[in-house]
Task: inverse folding
């Protein structure tokens, strides 16, 4: 018997294993079929599982990437690599109404150059605001390289709030990088130019052209840059490049790369060797080290003079006050990155194969000891390379940018020429791993990788070319962001993501739970100034205010009609249409577009947006809601009638195309009563379940209750008309009453489905 | 012994099972770990495997989606759901240089309304060009609802080539839909308006406002619409909506939905019920049936008159010539879809719960028999509903749009209020399956689902709201396209994709292998007119041509310099900069941005693009390449110097910031010789392998050979300068020679890596 029992035990074991297997077998056999069909390896499936995010799932990190010459910034999720939003910053974008509504036009107008509207930007390096060296999820800053400007984007609503123009520079690449408490936003010049806006000959390049570095003062309370409290370091006409702020022990200091310290002026059209030859002849360029804390004190003490209306610390003053120092660094470097502990500064030279590890302590010692190897042509003290360096490490051909791991000492460097990422240790100089990427990587990014506390986990390689990576879409290809798993000792490629618009240069990833944006605005809100709009309007208070040829229309939007539905103005009038979205429901955005006038507003719940334009031609101009908001969305329409000057309207009324009888009215009422029965059943289902445990459902119920209130109002109007024997209007209002019932039912059914699908319980 | 052998057998079985498992176990154990960590179900993993596309993988279908009020169109891949490109159509977009270069400005200028530039569009329904009822992959057409226009996008380079403006309408929703050989593109009006551009009172709505349907003639040979050969049907002031063209037996006919056949004019601000009430009071609206083939003959025969410079078939003529008929259809319908075999027309009414199946045969019989139930107020004959209908099927609350399966009779309908997709059979009326979606679905799309030969396989639900689906990004949410597997009998949800910019309304999916876009242009190409640019320039032929204050600059771009590097002009000059990209390498795009002048060009290999502007202020304006093109990209720069009027340049030369000696020169030459050794090794590796079997490598080798040629040239200049004892220039040209070597090495290394990773074989 023992025999059988033993065998029985073994068989049981078999059965158990079979079960373990079979509990996975359903998927597995299907999975193997799919793998075969699609040519996937096991590694592919693993990568798929590490990135795939099911419906309703959330990403762990949110990336803000620059959008290059699109002028916008891009938000996407990690690990799903799904792009969530392009936020308009320097370029008008009609979906967001950006550069179309008066409120955002006022933001763009802050960015004018020489009085001219600039209708694009070249965004390069986004920076999240920081508190104590960690991202705080409040703001994003982004620079425009082409027209040196900085923009502030508020993460409470993902909208651009402010643009400031450099008072000195004519291009700016080395921004944005923030100091550990966002005291300042660093912005370095790129191509040297005169500080004046006048013509200065290139013959006077060495004497009159200048670079520089601005520390823009940021006021965290109000979320705006204060140009009046910002200051700029005058710098030699080298091409200053990227920046980073010191932290921990190096707090109070800033670091900038540079190239073309040869101060070479090209002219290939005249037979001179081109810039690329002259700007890369020397073996080294200069790391610029600035003491912003001491500079701030001088500014506060009134010891810094102004030029072009802004504080400028001249090179003379910087030398005298010991505010700025130079250190040789490898040829044509790009990234300069302060380590999480603030003790080291890493520099990678694109035309070199080394990453160079500078010691902040050694730099400070050299400064303290006045241990300089000399000065540059402008008298700036130079600290000798070997005095400041901990080590240099051979990381591959064309190192470009460094980002940090959660593990102390571990850093990742993008390698341009070798098209790879190198993982190494900057304390030991040991190479830990490499992984090939496709192709021509620029910057790279780890999770919160430039904060005091990097998270590790994932790395993204920002590849600039994508030949043969995706289905072809013409000569202008997308860029390619490759997601790499860095949680293990070896890097593993997970995902290739095309960027469909713009050329990202730099990106930063924040923990998703640090972002808590609002879902709607307070009623009547000017989202660009973050205050109640003077043009807000409540339901029933819509009006037209005319003063000569200046007309203000105060209107409202609610699904599914625009008030007013007719706008009557005269040729030559200057018209402002101010619209407030009355919806309380999340996501119930309305748009407003009008034929032939470049009017396109995006009006999220609560927002008031305005469009001002001149009506220069008599005619008929339809307008409508551009966001599919409801079943009767297409009927959310109206006409602007521009009458010739002096036109006198006839006293005739509109003749309805259809006539309705008492029977029509009674038929509609019967339908409405039947519809109300359906609504009551749905309401009964919802209220007999624990719907209050489901925030989404609570929200839908609130909205449905609103709609039912509107239905009641329309019902009242219908009955009043019927009582007067006006069955034309009785029928129309009865239909409007039904329209609100349909909206109620729509919400109710969505709520019911949600409860059913999410295991709501019946209340006893 | 037997005992042990039996037990042994069982153990062996265990071992075998373990082995079967273990052949999958490596991935599986990791997979289960990942599943547990990320909370994935087996169904999720299967969906991941069905959509995940590994690096370098290709999608099976390419979708073109409209971008709504962004004014653009969007291309993405299925099943990966990765967005490949936003193509600029009606809205200027700087990354593509669209609306920034003279060539694309000329396209946008075609879309002016009342002489005014329109800087956005509201794109709704993209249509692929067709040959014999199937997509041919040549062109995409898209409409602008707000400013009634149609654009032509050429799929050989994914660029917008033409915009035409409706000569009659003031809004247009029911476009674009093409006839089976793209003879015509259908565009229906939306909101009725007078055909004249003058003011007409709303009191005259019934008499003077009109809808309509335009058949735009498309010339496939040249890829352009011919407005002079297009014609429009005058239609009553109903709101015409979507369209579709007959095929097979119904070839030659067109079908259009409509709403608000009540001809209701709102006015809620005056106490009138709003449009939404008055436009949905009747139980039915009208399907419009038009005979375009017969109309075309009349046009060709000179029997159609013109209005506003275009052919207009009046209602009177349409009645007389039997060109247009009406049939009742369910209230406020949206999609009208001709079945693949052309025998039926399906209509779904948003305020109804039925899809209605019309019979083309029955419609033709009614027309032949003149079996009409009466006429509408404009005298158009009405075919009775029951005369034309095969059946109506209860598909759910709020049916919106129908798309076809590869299986005969099977159709999918998006259900707005119930938030679901219903799969049913239009021959039997049987409901086959339903699947819930999130939320508020608008249109839906199957693979080539509106052609004669639908592919089935996948379905995409275009959901208009995305509350709670993704990480929140402020009050303006992305849209949500949900991918559904329809290859089995039951629909299965695979993927949620956020749309980061714009509000898609409609999409079409084409088999990816039908698209064969070019990767570069012929040299000196104007991509918007598709011909050689009159402003093209060859290497070494760069020049400045001045005529009074009109200055033309003919320049070139090649990595990494712009010729010219200095542009000298005078205040008040009107300047045109024409730049030709000399690269032959795929993907080697260069950009060109200039400070303060709204100049931002995207110049793909071969392209010539131009920027024309007035220099109204003396000053210094840096310019640079905006596409990261090479290691020395940042050095690809220059200055435009705007001199005050009458300024006389001094005769002094530029003083170089750095001086080079014979030793510097010789050092550089030594470096170059060493670099050449490395290059030779890489070349040796490549040529000793079967690299010619790898098209990408062949391409890289071609490019590398070019670069090496340039290096040789620079070497020559360097040696010539050295021979004259000019070591300054000798050193600089030697460095330039090295720069070309670096570019060569970069390409060579990429080629070598590709060969290594793709199993190239050594040639014996």
Result:
């Amino acid at each position: 018997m023992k025999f059988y029992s033993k065998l029985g035990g073994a068989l049981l074991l078999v059965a158990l294993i079979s079960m373990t297997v079979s509990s996975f077998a359903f998927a597995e056999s299907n999975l193997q079929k799919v793998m075969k069909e699609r040519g996937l390896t096991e590694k592919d499936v693993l990568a798929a599982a590490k990135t795939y995010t099911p419906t309703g799932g959330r990403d762990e990190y949110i990336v803000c990437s620059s959008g290059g010459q699109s002028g916008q910034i891009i938000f996407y999720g990690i690990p799903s690599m799904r792009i969530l939003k392009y936020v308009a910053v320097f370029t008008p974008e009609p979906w967001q109404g950006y550069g179309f509504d008066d409120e955002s036009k006022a933001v763009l107008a802050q960015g004018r150059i020489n009085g001219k509207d600039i209708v694009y930007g070249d965004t390069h390096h986004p920076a999240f605001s920081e508190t104590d060296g960690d991202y705080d999820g409040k703001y994003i800053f982004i620079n425009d390289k082409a027209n040196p400007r900085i923009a502030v984007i508020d993460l409470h609503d993902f909208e651009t709030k402010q643009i400031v123009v450099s008072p000195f520079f004519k291009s700016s690449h080395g921004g944005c990088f923030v100091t550990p408490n966002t005291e300042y936003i660093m912005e370095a010049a790129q191509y040297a130019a005169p500080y004046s806006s006048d013509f200065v000959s290139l013959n006077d390049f060495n004497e009159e052209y200048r670079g520089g570095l601005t520390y823009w003062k940021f006021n965290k309370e109000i979320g705006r840059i204060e140009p009046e409290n910002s200051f700029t370091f005058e710098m030699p006409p080298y091409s200053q490049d990227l920046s980073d702020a010191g932290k921990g022990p190096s707090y109070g200091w800033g670091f900038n790369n540079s190239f073309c310290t040869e101060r070479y002026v090209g002219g290939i059209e005249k037979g001179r060797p081109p810039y690329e030859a002259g700007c890369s002849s020397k073996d080294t360029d200069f790391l610029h080290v600035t003491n912003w804390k001491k500079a701030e004190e001088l500014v506060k003490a009134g010891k810094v003079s102004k030029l072009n209306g802004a504080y400028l610390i001249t090179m003379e003053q910087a030398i005298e006050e010991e505010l700025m120092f130079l250190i040789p660094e490898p040829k044509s470097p790009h990234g300069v990155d302060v380590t999480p502990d603030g003790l080291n500064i890493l520099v990678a030279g694109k035309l070199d194969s080394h990453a160079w590890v500078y010691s902040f302590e050694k730099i400070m010692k050299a400064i303290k000891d006045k241990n300089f190897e000399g000065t540059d042509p402008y008298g700036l003290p130079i600290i000798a390379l070997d005095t400041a360096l901990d080590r240099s490490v051979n990381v591959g051909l064309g190192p470009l940018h460094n980002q940090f791991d959660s593990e102390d000492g571990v850093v990742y460097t993008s390698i341009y020429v070798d098209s790879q990422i190198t993982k190494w240790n900057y304390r030991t100089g040991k190479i830990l791993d490499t992984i090939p990427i496709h192709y021509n990587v620029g910057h790279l990014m780890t999770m919160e990788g430039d904060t005091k506390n990097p998270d590790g986990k994932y790395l993204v390689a920002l590849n600039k070319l994508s030949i043969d990576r995706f289905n072809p879409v013409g000569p202008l290809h997308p860029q390619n962001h490759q997601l790499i798993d860095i949680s293990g000792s070896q890097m593993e490629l997970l995902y290739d993501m095309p960027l469909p618009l713009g050329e990202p240069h730099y990106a930063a990833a924040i923990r998703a739970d640090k972002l808590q944006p609002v879902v709607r605005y307070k009623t009547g809100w000017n989202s660009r100034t973050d205050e109640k709009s003077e043009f807000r309007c409540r339901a029933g208070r819509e009006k037209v205010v005319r003063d000569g040829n200046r007309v203000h229309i105060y209107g409202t939007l609610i699904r599914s009609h625009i008030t007013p539905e007719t706008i009557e103005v005269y040729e030559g009038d200057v018209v402002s249409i101010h619209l407030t979205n009355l919806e309380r429901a999340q996501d119930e955005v309305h748009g407003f577009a009008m034929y032939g006038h470049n009017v396109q507003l995006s009006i999220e719940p609560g927002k008031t947006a305005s469009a001002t334009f001149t009506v220069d031609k008599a005619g008929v101009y339809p307008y409508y809601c551009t966001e599919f908001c409801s079943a009767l969305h297409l009927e959310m329409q109206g006409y602007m009638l521009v009458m010739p000057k002096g036109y006198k309207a006839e006293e005739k009324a509109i003749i309805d195309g259809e006539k309705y009888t008492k029977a029509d009215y009674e038929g509609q009422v019967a339908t409405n009563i039947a519809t109300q029965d359906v609504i009551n059943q749905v309401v009964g289902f919802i209220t007999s379940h624990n719907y209050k445990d489901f925030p989404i459902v609570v929200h839908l119920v609130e909205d449905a209750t609103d709609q039912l209130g509107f239905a009641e109002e329309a019902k009242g109007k219908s009955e009043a008309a019927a009582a007067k024997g006006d069955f034309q209007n009785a029928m129309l209002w009865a239909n409007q009453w039904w329209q609100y019932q349909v909206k109620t039912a729509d919400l109710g059914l969505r709520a019911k489905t949600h409860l059913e699908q999410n295991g709501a319980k019946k209340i006893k």
